[in-house]
Amino acid sequence: xxxxxxxxxxxxxxxxxxxxxxxxxxxxxxxxxxxxxxxxxxxxxxxxxxxxxxxxxxxxxxxxxxxxxxxxxxxxxxxxxxxxxxxxxxxxxxxxxxxxxxxxxxxxxxxxxxxxxxxxxxxxxxxxxxxxxxxxxxxxxxxxxxxxxxxxxxxxxxxxxxxxxxxxxxxxxxxxxxxxxxxxxxxxxxxxxxxxxxxxxxxxxxxxxxxxxxxxxxxxxxxxxxxxxxxxxxxxxxxxxxxxxxxxxxxxxx
Amino acid sequence: xxxxxxxxxxxxxxxxxxxxxxxxxxxxxxxxxxxxxxxxxxxxxxxxxxxxxxxxxxxxxxxxxxxxxxxxxxxxxxxxxxxxxxxxxxxxxxxxxxxxxxxxxxxxxxxxxxxxxxxxxxxxxxxxxxxxxxxxxxxxxxxxxxxxxxxxxxxxxxxxxxxxxxxxxxxxxxxxxxxxxxxxxxxxxxxxxxxxxxxxxxxxxxxxxxxxxxxxxxxxxxxxxxxxxxxxxxxxxxxxxxxxxxxxxxxxxxxxxxxxxxxxxxxxxxxxxxxxxxxxxxxxxxxxxxxxxxxxxxxxxxxxxxxxxxxxxxxxxxxxxxxxxxxxxxxxxxxxxxxxxxxxxxxxxxxxxxxxxxxxxxxxxxxxxxxxxxxxxxxxxxxxxxxxxxxxxxxxxxxxxxxxxxxxxxxxxxxxxxxxxxxxxxxxxxxxxxxxxxxxxxxxxxxxxxxxxxxxxxxxxxxxxxxxxxxxxxxxxxxxxxxxxxxxxxxxx
Amino acid sequence: xxxxxxxxxxxxxxxxxxxxxxxxxxxxxxxxxxxxxxxxxxxxxxxxxxxxxxxxxxxxxxxxxxxxxxxxxxxxxxxxxxxxxxxxxxxxxxxxxxxxxxxxxxxxxxxxxxxxxxxxxxxxxxxxxxxxxxxxxxxxxxxxxxxxxxxxxxxxxxxxxxxxxxxxxxxxxxxxxxxxxxxxxxxxxxxxxxxxxxxxxxxxxxxxxxxxxxxxxxxxxxxxxxxxxxxxxxxxxxxxxxxxxxxxxxxxxxxxxxxxxxxxxxxxxxxxxxxxxxxxxxxxxxxxxxxxxxxxxxxxxxxxxxxxxxxxxxxxxxxxxxxxxxxxxxxxxxxxxxxxxxxxxxxxxxxxxxxxxxxxxxxxxxxxxxxxxxxxxxxxxxxxxxxxxx
Lengths: 254, 493, 390
What we know:
heterotrimer, A: Rossmann fold, 10 helices, globular, B: eleven-stranded mixed β-sheet
């Protein structure tokens, strides 16, 4: 099976500062990969570079999504291609209701794929179904996007969007940050419900705890802008026990 | 609860009122022999002043030009201040202690009464031995219009730092004075600046050479003593590339029934990578509880961040003067330059304050920060007037402004007049202002923890002003905190 | 642009009322002249220069149908049929000119052709939409009075492409409620309102300016008895060289009054937004709450925002605050929307519409809000298609 996401020797940075230093990673459909690493290792940068955020520049290396290079694709084109980024710090957009936003986003992606837009009634049905499955009440759909939402509500909203947009590759950037154990479980349940044989996931996290709930197939350790070790789920437990110290040393010596 | 509040308010108001007249502890006068010229302002008077100071021709010409401009200008009347018309012909424009006539070679030769004055004010004219942990502070003492003495000059000279009276700088470093005088505040800038440019007597001059971090704080203490004189100091501080200086200014004056005019000009120039911190604790006589007497403080202070990465900050604690009109400002010319303004302005009894700052963003990626705390009590009026202006070419400009007013008692007024002008797309300007009184809940909480009303007010007001107090150099911070307490309560909080 | 004297001589016999009184007012106006930037209240608005700027695109029709409103139109300053409704009395235009303060109001006194004379005595079930249309200079003087407990919604729908000097005198009786919606899409308008709000009365103004070379909206609101409350919200979508100036004075004369003001400006090309809001709290006006917010979203180099939120406080037991934030379109928000599939133009559109929505959210009537949302969406569309990134 060919890779869903194939990153080769990626060098990238922001405002002239290099952050990713030769990162390589390959995710096949159906796989859940976890990336763990200390602060400053470049984890969030990786997610921004994959999603195409302004200001982040690739100086070397390749990012192939289903065989196509992401490099020249605008952020919305990547979304239309099926790439989804769940933000670490979801934004508030005052004046725009959750419902309006979801509809606009869904239809933009459908249009981009040559599909028909969803009619209002079908959309409403879908939105209610997906939000209830996540334990969100209908009220949240009417509120302004993330305005006044608690940390947990914001993260759940990200998962709702993921459920509505049905991406091929979902990148979860520190989805667990700021969540208490109950919120974490709810979010993890939502993510697990979206696992599928044709969908890949990249879970970026600092703490091992999330991986108790979203069990990865592969765990990578990232330090100084590259992957320094890969292994099975047990690698995450090792990290929890001994921390990142040995890997920071490794990256320096590598 | 509202009865308790009314009585607390009354107590606070009474305490505050008590301070107004009797307790201004700097209100004494000094009897010394003074050389005074007749009242009036004319070309002759200006020539006289210039000759007395043995100034070069170019400076006399400069003064005369300023005088010509001043004659064509109108006194500004747009501020939230109201005062009787000043008769500019009924003022004396020069008064100097006689003992200074031939210039004392050392402090031993200065009139002892003069020295006594500064001692009473707690200002160290004798160079102090370095005590453990206490930094030296160099002092230039200005009595009426004349510099009495400057300490630590030799030590400073070792680093190439020039710190002396303005008059002396004109004699010893004319090329520097000529280069920078009027380059930040042109003589025609405004009515009071023009007047000052014509008749300024003395002030401090300070030059820090490239790369030098001035080894001690430099300070000037201004003392007005003689009656019916106008005080017109001129201060010029130049920080050359990569240098740093922290400069303190303190001011007091005796209690008199007549108002006295103080129209000063302060110019700061910071070159590439240089930093100037300018702090003021102003405690001019504010007038008595009926608004009789007190200093009119009309000052033009401006800093020019002339080159890249220059930084200038103004910190002030203003508790005195009957009428205040001053807007220390920064011109952010160099790219990545920054300006800061931290101010506590307290007004009581019948004081009127119209004060604030201007930040002009001209260069790229400039930033400015304004924190202004106004406290009004008695029947005073306290207005913040600020301008943040971003020029069309000033990409990436950032400003944060916080101006808060606290009202004590219901007979005073607090005004906020900000002008926020963004002409560039990428400017980010944030401004917040609040006006309120000390909350009943806060007072009650303090009292429940054992503080009486006075102490509670002092505590709360200090908390209110904390952002500004934190920014003062240590030597001043303690004095300022005490002053804040005193000016509101009559005894140290 | 006005050539007022010539105009007056030409039309004075057609104007209702005492010609002498009008002539006196005109003389006073001419002597003072149109305001210049030297007057503090006109510091940011150079009327003479703006009157020379070409007007922006024509006004788009607003669909008020779904509201089933009472409609009336002033075409070139003259009203046609007066609508009828229970609780609404529309009197004929008054016939004498009152001398006023300042050139703008004196020109109005001299040249006013017509105006609304409305007395509302009950709770009107329909909104009253007053449209100003035409292409000739227009002077209107409206007087609206709400009796105690009366309720009304009034829409000032300015569609004229010419110069308009409109004066509103509004008085709210005790516990009355008035929502005033002001729309300007074109033309050169100087609107001056005086509003007095009695005890427990509520005045709400929501203004939307989507066009017009000059949109100067001045309002002096007096909260004269306890319980009075005023809300003034304005939204500006600026483009071309359009200039929108909202100048408010909110005077808390009495204790226990409150006010809430906000201004949202989206400024593109060489447009200019001005907000001057002065809140005055008089000495005996204790327990006053006053809040003021200014926000500007700058979309291009060349756009300009000037904000002067002023406080003049003479009482102490008050809670007054104002805030101002000026910046460009939030880049992080833009990225977020694009990462969710929206192309750049759509993302910008959504952010701008969302920004303006924060003003429209104050409109209680859903049908009214919907009609205005449609106007905003259209207005933003014609402006922001295929825009390059900032």
